[in-house]
Design a protein that fits this description.
single chain, mainly alpha, 3-stranded antiparallel β-sheet, 3 strands
Length: 311
């Protein structure tokens, strides 16, 4: 059993976590479920060079918003978040279930929710920064879909290259190949409606596990940003507010104002006691962004990061 867990850990490390941090093609593993909660206990990436490159990239990303030279090592909770992301992406795999096994999709999405609820919130601001350094590029993920047509038919491939047999004798068979990139938030489209909606809800729950990343991507189109215990705990401290403001400052003022305002207006009853704190932060953040806009040279925009990560 230990050998199998070691193998699965290495699959997750090389197939998902390293490409997410470094940029590159992600290779998904079969779903981890609750195994992901303990998979990272006492384990680290065996490839010393890969481990070193991941750590350097994490520090480099953290330094975009904080003057740090080192970060805590990846913890069991980080690996649990990575495993949950693997399972979330697997829920868009059209080969996971068939006509008689469609129940696998909602079951997997429920599992992602359950695992996310069991992942502890960051212990402190440093832990929140470390998680963001690992998972901050998640919204840059995408999938390349390919459509192939020929004189007698056509076929579509989700996230997979078409077989070479379909590409033979292109001129004779009038083969046409079209590719397009599907962003993360649209990867559930084309699945049954309950799966597509469940995917976005599960993505929202996953983002709640890394609150600084949640705030950094709060202007996303979907799933809409919502205040959570993790993001509220982050802005409850002055260092946390500083980091939150720095990630928000990379977006347009009006987009941030709209996202925070919408989330504050929809603050759930169980978090109602924190409304004054949330409203105070929203005022501080928008005032700070207004001041930045007033002082910035005309035409200057915050730098945007890029990634080649894909599934």
């Amino acid at each position: 059993m230990a050998d199998e867990a070691d193998e699965r850990f290495e699959e997750l490390a090389s197939g998902l976590l390293a490409p997410l941090v470094l940029g590159g093609k992600i290779t998904l593993s079969r779903p981890f479920g609750r195994l992901g909660l303990t998979l990272g206990e006492g384990r680290q990436i065996s490839d010393v060079d890969l481990d070193s490159r991941v750590e350097v990239a994490r520090v480099r990303r953290a330094r975009l918003i904080a003057p740090v030279d080192t970060l805590p090592d990846l913890e069991a909770s980080d690996w649990a978040i990575a495993a949950a992301l693997n399972d979330l992406l697997q829920a868009t795999n059209h080969e996971l279930g068939g006509m008689l096994t469609m129940s696998r999709y909602p079951k997997l999405l429920r599992s992602v929710h359950e695992v996310c609820e069991l992942i502890p919130r960051p212990r402190d601001v440093g832990s929140a920064l470390a998680r963001h350094a690992t998972f901050g590029r998640v919204m840059e993920l995408g999938r390349t879909d390919t459509s192939v047509s020929w004189w007698t038919g056509s076929a579509k491939f989700r996230g997979q290259p078409p077989p070479t047999r379909l590409l033979r004798w292109r001129e004779l068979r009038r083969v046409q190949v079209d590719t397009h990139r599907v962003p993360l938030v649209e990867m559930g489209e084309g699945m049954p409606p309950n799966v597509a909606d469940g995917f976005l809800r599960a993505l929202g729950a996953w983002l709640g596990c890394t609150p600084l990343t949640d705030l950094a991507t709060s202007t996303r189109s979907s799933p809409p940003f919502a205040w959570s215990p993790g993001t509220i705990a982050l802005i409850a401290t002055r260092p946390g507010r500083t980091l939150a403001f720095r990630v928000l400052a990379r977006h347009a003022l009006e987009a941030v104002r709209a996202a925070l305002g919408r989330a504050t207006g929809a603050l759930p009853p169980e978090l109602g006691a924190y409304r004054p704190l949330v409203e105070e932060f929203c005022k501080e953040a928008t005032a700070g962004l207004e001041a930045l806009n007033d002082s910035a040279p005309t035409g200057r925009k915050p730098p945007a990061s890029r990634s080649s990560s894909s599934t």
